[in-house]
## 1
Amino acid sequence: MEAILLQILNGLDKGTAYALIALGLTLVFGTLGVVNFAHGALFMMGAFVAVGVQNLLTISARVRDTSITFFDAYKETPYLELWWGDVGRTIIDYAVPISVIVAIPVMLLVGLAMERGLIRHFYKRDHADQILVTFGLAIVLQEIVKGFFGANPIPVNAPQVVATSVDIGSLFGLEGITYPWWRLIYLGFSLAVIGGVFAFLHFTTFGMVVRAGMHDREMVGLLGINIQNRFTIVFGLAAVVAGLAGTMYTPILSPDYHMGMEFLVLSFVVVVVGGMGSLPGAVAAGFLLGILQSFFSMNEIKAYLPGIDQIIVYLVAVIILLVRPKGLLGKD
Amino acid sequence: MSDDDKKFGTLSRRGFLKASIATAAAAAAPTILIRNAHAFVNEPKGATVTLGFNVPQTGPYADEGADELRAFKLAVKHLNGEGNGGMLNTMKPLSLKGNGILGKKVVYVTGDTQTKSDAARASAKRMIEKDGALMISGGSSSGVAIAVQSLCQEAGVIFMAGLTHSNDTTGKDKRKHGFRHFFNAYMSGQALAPVLAEEYGTDRRAYHLTADYTWGWTQEESIKNATEALGWKTVATVRTPLGAGDFSQYITPVLNSGADVLILNHYGKDMVNSLIQAVQFGLRDKMVNGKKFEIMVPLFSRLMAQGAGDAIKGILGSTNWNWSLTDEGSQAFVKSFGAEYGFPPSQAAHTCYVQTLLYANACEMAGTFNPCGVIEALEGFKFDGMGNGPTEYRAADHQCFKNVLVVRGNQNPTSQFDLLEVVKEVPRSQVAYDPKIFGGELGSCNA
């Protein structure tokens, strides 16, 4: 029972990460008709916003270690800590939540620049061209980040107060079930973002126009609405969602320049399984595949089906596409 | 028939017999001489000799690869008599004269392994066939090392392995043309065992998470054997896909497994992520079986320790070499490297630097670049002054035997580089083993 509960939590946690990236991917595909292979790079850039903020907050005074003469070795003390003591330490400790606030405008700008600067030139080209150019863009972004930050993972810590785990078993009358605070926060945060995006699209006039444009772009245009501008903003919104997913994920996965690619492939599987262009499909498929991946990693299952944890996502994708070629919630 | 024709015909018959005998004699007598003097791949004809440095320049180990490349460049500089000489001042015995190798200036070409076996083989092949590289070195993965070693055997050039820790490299996959200075998983197990007994006791229950490829498998086996010999029990050994990223589904079963030690047979990014996540799951705060739960990382790297941040503090592991060693060889290398680049070398840089000098020295000892001569010179070569105490390149498997460091993530670092604290320098006698235990055949020289 304990093991199952823990794997459900793992699956939900993983699923929200997939769903957040897939949500942006499918939003862009549904509105602009663009297959954006640079979307994983936006996730990575969001993570590096957190690295950048952490680096800014920890700009330090250096005290040389005089026992070492062959090169400059020093102990660093952040200026914030020197100037403001405990307050400075607390600000540094909260680098990730601060990064979330910073990431929103930064990722919005990145998204808008990407759409205006490059993507819009490929609206009328076929999907193969779009994939090539966005994949190329992803590689360029990766190399830029590698040039600045190196190839090694960079540790980013969650605030101390939530850096440990919590006994959640007691809520269910079970013993010995602990789960990291930050993963629970990530789960809640992701659900809030997903809910926010749905609310935005369903309960605002802007969202209503965007949905109408997704359904019939030409008709919306004939009604005198500049749907293109709205779609550009939607691209920016998708970049913000992917970026926030990356920023919040940094305490779980130390950021490195390649992390976006690793998520991109799985997120595409999620989009395809959910149904290209279907927002609820992306979310449902994200959770489904996340939970399946966690369950099939259990030793009890792997004892009978060795290696199943590594292929289950793709196996399920194949089965779903055979049974429902348009995906779980895709429409003809 | 004319007279000329008759003469020609008579001479032809006699000539044919004479020529046949002469040709047979000529063909038989100098064969060995010819094979020794020429007829090996990429024999240097001009004033230079080309070495091929095959390192990960892209991909997850690009930083480690960059450090290897720095070390190779420094080694070339020292071989050519430039700079302060580094370990040429401390290596014993030394045949090198600081004028290149056998009087030829050393030049180099580089390749990108991408930490992928196929890409590594392709770049090594290009350096051998197009650039004329006489020796290939470098790499940061056992999968790559084994693949490139096999290619070098087929091509007839020497392979001086970089960072590779799998038992297989000089075990079941060993080759006559391949040499490894770096230590291996078996040695890690043997070095760590006494320290583990001392620090954690002999009644422990271990849970292994293992990277699912050659290095992970051999490390799991070696550490399992070493800890079970102490009296520890192995609760489970679980294979994890390379580059899994999120290890939560593999860590949560540990919580209620009854294990009180988690052994992470992971390297690089996998190690960073699995360690950080294990700490977040509160494993290090747990008490199990009346004992404090412990996490162990058998293979440490300072570069990777940086990525793990605070999570690495207090964690036990082993390493081939650390810049903080105070012997004269290590100091000479750290001084040269530090002066050149402004920071200390990694263990990957150290092994690559040493391998280059060892290869060059073997050529000087043999008096030839012929791989067969070089192999003979390296086999059984005993040396000192290279940072790990007295060392021997064992002839039976081309594995170096030297002291091994047991280290711990430093709790109170004095600088940004002071991440590992040396707990014990384990003598090589304690990590030695019979080459037969890992099987494999060296084969013969292919030159």
## 2
Amino acid sequence: MIRAEGVTKIFGPAPETALPLLEAGKGKSEIQAETGQVVGVHDVSFSVEPGEVFVIMGLSGSGKSTLIRCINRLFEPTAGHIFFQHPDEGEVEITGLSDERLRMLRKHHMSMVFQNFALFPHRSVLDNVAYGLEVQGKARDERHRHAREMLEMVGLGDWGNAYPSELSGGMQQRVGLARGLATDASVLLMDEPFSALDPLIKVNMQQELKKIQQQLGRTILFITHDLDEAMRIGDHIAIMEEGEIIQLGTPEEILVNPRTEYVARFVEHADPTAVITAGTIAQPLDSQTFRTVSEADGLRFVAADDLPALHYGLDDQGRLQEARLNGQRLEIRSLDEALEREARGARREDLLMLCPHQTVLRQVLRGRTRTALPTLVTDAEGRVTGLIDELQLIRGILEKRGPSADSESLPVAEEASS
Amino acid sequence: MSEILELLRQLITDPFGLLEALPVRQWITDAVNWVVSNFRDFFRSYLSPPVRGAMELIQTALEAIPPGLFLVGIFLIGWRAASWRVGLFSFIALALVGFMGVWNALVVTLSLVITAVLFCMLIGLPLGILCSRSDRFANAMRPILDIMQTTPPFVYLVPAVMLFGIGNVPGLIATIIFAMPPMIRLTNLGIRQVSTEYIEAAEAFGSTPRQILWKVQFPLALPTVMAGLNQTIMLALSMVVIAAIIGAGGLGLEVYAGLERLNIGQAFVGGIGIVLLAMVLDRITQGLGEKAPGKSK
């Protein structure tokens, strides 16, 4: 949807003077001391898929706000190219557009939501939401009707005639969001939209944004300095430091495998239970800790070394057909089903749960409150790929990783043999 | 040697005596004479008519309103623009002027002020907007504005008379020149003060520079522009009195005639009338400024 290649933005009267120094690998402060130019963003490349939430995260001064302004050219990039997948014209290079065509792009395809809302104080809420439509040249009735729909969607249907100053911060940003959505632009640029809001309202807004995004299918470029926020709403996260992207990946990739010290410090305090998935922490079925104990009726029974009494019966595809504990047949249920049906607080000894590999850790933990037995992880075809017992859960929370990413020897095996 | 010492002494004690006096007086006299002899007809046939026409139209209109209705009208204007208090104050103040027997002079002065302010807005607003859009233009305007504002009005009353003759028109021209600077300055300032976050937001939605000006910048600058209008009105009022010297009528003429005849009472009645009118116009335009939508933040 959007592709950036080698985008660089240097502020100052003579940005060219800083380019060779940047190429020579000099740091931001060195360049500022030498040439007086300030490097905002340096050689940033990424690509945003249609319909995803792409989060750019970094501390203040890391260049994230500069980067997002380069995309709709509120700031003119010093070097690099930015492309946009135009619905009618195919791929268009934003960095090469004339003023007139750039305005068309901003009018119809790319809108923006701001950190401090930037609602026009002299316009009513309705006229604020309708602003983009007004610029598009839509008739009054039409734009008001559409703006009212947008206000309904963000839950402010009754506030159209109020002025922004009469609204709380959270409500103002709903208006800002409605204004950004009203033009039907396929790309929404959001510059720290929730940073100025109270924590509780912030979480509310994040959930609502996710909902609206699923409903409308917009592509969102979202800037934040809050890792939990990034993890909660991002499909991909780019972490910026000193004007460069130092790591780009899914929330889980970043949490499980931080590439630099800086990222590691960032993710240290993040809540892993909503991000890390069952597939990551599970003990793989093919590791040495499992062995085949018997075969019967076309089923192969396997058991883990540390829990030899529990036998999992797999068919030739690797799907779980039967499970026995000390010879006793166990009930098998999916995790979701178990959470729905089983009484809270009653921890069963005869229930075995299955969950898909993309289930988040938190959900698996919830499941464990219903049964004392391990959870089996399945792939997309329903084949069992691994097992999560208490040990894997604890390691997932504490270490934010599973056995596969672990360079140390497998503690499960060690404990089993001791 | 002694000659050099003598020269040094003179350099310190009387450096200006070394050269003949700079003939600035002569230059200006010549320049004004040249302008008058070459452009008098142009000024009289192209500049005077619109000013005189506007003034006469406004005066005729105001004089056509019966005083009682006028007072009710001013109450309504004060009430709508500011508050019922301002309306009541305006009503009482102008009624007082009428009771002092100078109602007709008041109406003339008001016509003069309205005409002058109208022209100030007509010329000053576009100039102010231009200043806000171009640093170069603003820098070029600044010394001109300084000259317009600080040159003692008496200095240009004489050339005004030479160009336009005696009467309301030269007085109006002098008033327009004197009262216009705040309109330009504060329009410029108001537009420049509009926070970049609003301009950025307008840009992000694809607004053209013209749309940004009229949909965002100017409305948000309105309180400041109104402050400029208020200043312009006050300056116009003060100048209208001075313009009486070259034949402008109204309350200023009362003051001037009173002084000439050493009729202190007459002079003071004119003076009080001007003060009351100034207060009324000030309160009303301030009220307008506070109600301007850009203020609602």
## 3
Amino acid sequence: MAALDDVQVKEGVDQETVEAVQSVGGKYKYGFETDIEIEYAPKGLNEDIVRLISEKNNEPEWMLEWRLSAYRRWLQMEEPDWAMVDYPEIDFQDQYYYARPKSMAEKPKSLDEVDPKLLETYAKLGIPLKEQALLAGVEAPEGDRRVAVDAVFDSVSVGTTFKDELAKAGVIFCSISEAIQDHPELVKKYLGSVVPQSDNYYATLNSAVFSDGSFVYIPEGTKCPMELSTYFRINAENTGQFERTLIIADKGAYVSYLEGCTAPQRDIAQLHAAVVELVLLEDAEIKYSTVQNWFPGDEEGKGGIYNFVTKRADCRGDRSKVMWTQVETGSAVTWKYPSCILRGDDSQGEFYSIAIANNMQQADTGTKMIHLGKNTKSRIVSKGISAGKAQNTYRGLVSMHPKAQNGRNYTQCDSLLIGDKCGAHTVPYIEVKNNSARVEHEATTSKVDDEQLFYCRQRGMDEEEAVALVVNGFCKDVLQALPMEFAMEAQALVAISLEGSVG
Amino acid sequence: MSAKLKNKGVVPSITVPDGGKWATTARNAAAELLTETGLPHRRDEYWKYTDPTTLTAPEATPAAIFKSDDPLPFSGVDAVKIVFVDGIYDPSQSDALELAGVEIETLADAAQKDIHWAGSVFGVLEGRGQSPVSRPLASYNTAMAEQGFVIRATGKAAKPVSFIYLHESETSDAVIHHTIKLDEGADLTVLENGPAAARINAVMEVEVADNAAFHHVRAQGRDHERRTATHIFARLGAESSFKSFTLTVNGVLTRNDAIIEFTGDNAHATVAGACAGDGAFHHDDTVFITHDAVNCESRQVFKKVLRNGAVGVFQGKILVQPDAQKTDGYQISQGLMLDENSTFQAKPELEIYADDVACSHGSTVGAIDETALFYLTSRGIPHKEAQDMLTLAFLGEAIDEVEDDALADDLRSLLQGWMARRHG
């Protein structure tokens, strides 16, 4: 990362911070390519391609109709241009919308049948797909946590681990293509119910051409016995990845879900437009964590992933709770706002984000908290770090509807600039239509929970230390929960101090 | 394709007034820009929270005249008084345009000349303020305005210039444009008060040269049905100072834009406002501050008290350009909602391209602090009175931004009047 080496670091930004950012923004470790025979759908996008994707997944007629109606809708829509990102116009006809390793033509019945080259790829990425070894406890070091993985390679799900054990608990964890066939009633009921087909340009495109993704159903009163995760890998060239994730937590259910993403290093930018829908019924809780490390492009901004993602949680039931945690270090362009619709009374939404943009990266990310129910609470903690020539924008909405009696929101967003060629921007929208609601948006570091600060200060910490402890204490819990190798890198970020923050 | 073109608004028919070369050039440029952008509409990002329809309609919506025996704000201040009636300058009610250290001339007179110093300010600062956000109502004003003053302060003004805008016709539609220039080291205070008309579109351009100081205090008239759109465009030189404060009570629609640009180092700007709205009241403060110089300080302090369905909007932006190091930008917007029917909407934005800066913003909305209320009532203060005390204290923090104590007191008593009438 030459850009950072030349930078005159300002007084007040400590060396540890700079090093932590360097280690994350350094050479992209996941830029290798798996040499594997790929079967593509013809280039471009039209109704036939939509039909072909549906056919490849053996989908029932209703699913095809759903896709086609989304496609027709998409043709009428215009690409949004309000985000503070700048990229060359995307030629949607110059992309492959479906790419599948040839060995996956016949869906493997178990992981043993999966092409070893694919398994190798995941092993190289640090994702264990060998559950047997872990189950037997042979290779697993003591205390190693078990995580069920759904691995998505280009357009298809390669395999899902721990399926049987999860099934015993009543948990359904499979690829969405399998779910469409095996659990059509659940998919029909919930697909598109949180992010409607016509929600936005990229979500509509996704609705038409999504090829695979993960499906999770946690039955009533069940705490998912292990963490679930999906690992997305783009390998094929000129291929867009459009995955769709649907998670349903029934009454009183709990699940922690992790998501990781990487892609090879290429000169040409690639498109990734995902949709994630979370449904929470009464007393349900979902923790959704993302480590997004798509290839960010090189130092001159060549290549990289355009990451246009729609993620939304619908807290339908009373007392339900959702927590989004994201560590965004990759992608050339990020356009992503994981949101919470707090419909149920006493429901809660939380959003914790660390977004790091380096070199020529552009990130426009944040959240929306829509308070509809009584006593709903939300909390937003966002830390944006810009280095090199990157632009990092926090964009958020906090909306208190007239019926959101006693709604509460606390928002804190801090930005840190390293070097004088980058930018950090904050665009919060605050809409309050209820006087019993209380909304606070703070961008000054001194306004972290005063009581906690006071507690720390009393014990001899200086203000800077106390603030770092309070804010990072939040992130740390979640970061430590990430099983993937690069969670280590994410953790390194915790060392970043808030010095030099600009709000 | 830019958002601007995609969402282009209606283009009004414009006939630029006759005038000399400098004025015609500026008016034509503004008219041309307006032809490109069209008038604002609800789908414009910067009109998201305020519906501009009644501000852009060909005819002003009639507005009842508000009658009050209360003295006008600032009436006790010794100033050069300039009176407008329904947006037209009325010399018979005004003082002579004479003030040591200050040249005062009507826009109409100045515009007849071919060469005038105002050519370097009129439409120029407004034009600079059209990017990156277009401000079509200001373009309209520059192209069309025949009323207004050009004022040049060459030294320290002996007393303030006070504009009084009277409203006498229920259908009046005013367009006023003031052009103000402060030479190096000059010092000038401009006061404004009154509703002006059923509808007013007002623009003030202020060039503040090095070491000069400009003060602006404004009380927007109490007519319930008036509709107001104002723009202030200011450009600040090195070591200069700019302070503007606006108090608004009543008015069915008010949109105040302030566009401030720092071009010289070590300058200071404050834009502050307090408003109290009851019932049919929509108040929008939109501020855009550009730091393009080193070591400048900007403050935005906005407080809104709302009840009975009143709507308060704040859109504030601090833009720090790449070399504007040591910038200190501060922005606070707060809404106090006295009942369940009101709305507060805020968009406090930061856009920062320099690393050695301290910018912060805060925005809070909520009801009156129950703990504070309990504290006061437990000490024997009646509930209503306690509520008033807390409301006044809340708005007082914005009024504290007014440097001149006498003016600040005037503003406080206006607010107290509002409180008293509320209970009446």
## 4
Amino acid sequence: MLYREAGQFKATYVEDSQIFPIRQDKVGMALILVVAFAGIPLLSLTGLMTDYFFTAILTPFLIFALATLGLNILTGYAGQLSLGTAAFMAVGAFASYNFILRVDGMPILAAFALGGLCAAAVGIVFGLPSMRVRGFYLAAATLATQFFVVWILTKIGWFTNYSSSGVITAQKIEMFGYTFDSALSKYLFVLAIVALLALLAKNMVRSNVGRSWMAIRDMDMAAEVIGFRPLRTKLLAFAVSSFYCGVAGALFAYAYLGTVEPEGFSLDLSFRILFMVIIGGVGSILGSFFGAAFIVLVPIGLNILTGFLENSAGISLPSGISSSIELMVFGAMIIFFLIVEPHGLARLWQIGKEKLRLWPFPH
Amino acid sequence: MATARQIGEVIIDLRNISLRFGGVKALTDISFDVREHEIRAIIGPNGAGKSSMLNVINGVYRPQEGEIVLRGRHHRDMNTHAAARAGIARTFQNIALFRGMTVLDNIMTGRNLKMKSSFLLQALYWGPAQREELAHRRKVEEIIDFLEIEHIRKTPVGRLPYGLQKRVELGRALAAEPSILLLDEPMAGMNVEEKQDMCRFILDVNDQLGTTIVLIEHDMGVVMDISDRVVVLDYGRTIADGTPDEVRGNQDVIDAYLGVAH
């Protein structure tokens, strides 16, 4: 009843090829943006939202969503499996750090963009094996990126400015004389970047470049025959994907952790982002946000739940067990998801919308 | 069958093509030509090398011997990109559509070589990039109209029945506005009605756009009806070449299809 597109006719191709062709989607997206950019900051001014919301939930959610988006471009759209996401994030973070450290007056956004470009360059180099290998074999090749990048950042002191522990402390985020040091301002800073990059990604996937990625993913032989160049297409996907991951890595260091060491960008992080892609929906921009939200929120939710159980129900678990239970439940949920809906939350959302179009009628 | 169209000069000349995979001889010393604007059929029993022949023409396979003369230019072998640029488009025996994409997007991919705007402009989806996208959309919609698939333009091709997928694949090939169209069993697995539709599309393309068509088909009725000349392959060799009537009466062809007592 509410979600019905009846009567919304498209008379031009411009109207028909919009990102949100249906009015309800447009309104919904506008609402989300208003809430994210204005509603939540206003709420926090009233003191209803503590810093915890920003530092532990919203900011990491946005940063992970960006990294997931990056991996989704490569794996979901272009069909190239990668386990090197965290390595590309590390390149972005450490490159940005060095640009700000070593270039006087380097604007922070330019440093992040350059960090992303460095990640893109590394992505292109490590994407070269995709010319010959695919699937699991490519995943194994990108695994090399993961270990190589972390190793080189640890071994060569220059990257960490010869810090004895290998830990770098991210500089302050400063722009136009304003310092983003409160939790809220960092959140807004991240939000703006993520919203912009998500829009660009959406534009890419609805243009020729996005079609070239999907063509290579679905049938590389036919893609070649109609004129796409496989190597160029794959390397572009690696570059764009790594750029997104690089910027996410820079934000991870600057707006989330503050201090970071190369080991922080471990294989574990790569896997977490791969899970976000799988749970959110392979080959979906929206799914990247769903997946990141799921993986960020579920552990927190489980944590609260076990805490609640211990306090109110009087069940006291030994401290080691409660955290293990969290991991086990988490693992079980991932397996459940893979079996029930292998196309992820984005597909569930799609199905929900189809149902909503008909509701309250059966068909 | 041929109406007003004028069969022109030789556009593809295949000379002494031999193709081997290891010790297996797929094609042995095959020569034939294709003239501009004609419908040229390649027939033969299973495993005769028909698909290999198409793969040689558009550069998927590289023959060990022979040469390909395309519009008077000699090539030792073709490569897929050069073939696409030279105006050769094709469909595949086992449908090779992009299954995760909609019909519209699939056909849009056929126009990729004509899209010029840079990747950054596409990311902004702004100005020239948007105008280009929309101009190509208009062209693609013409093809969608022609193939009578308006109702499924936003459907992912993976969900379509076989006959429609074949039609979409033809659409993707047509989107490139090819001068030469290679069709690998466009009517395989279709019912009579679908075959009639497909024949109509092929004849219209040939007649109205003047597209040269090289066709592999097993349905002899169709082949004899619509093609101007037929080449017959068996065990990787040419056994006959000529008009449908000449080929029909050829003893070698009859033997190849019906078998011969040894």
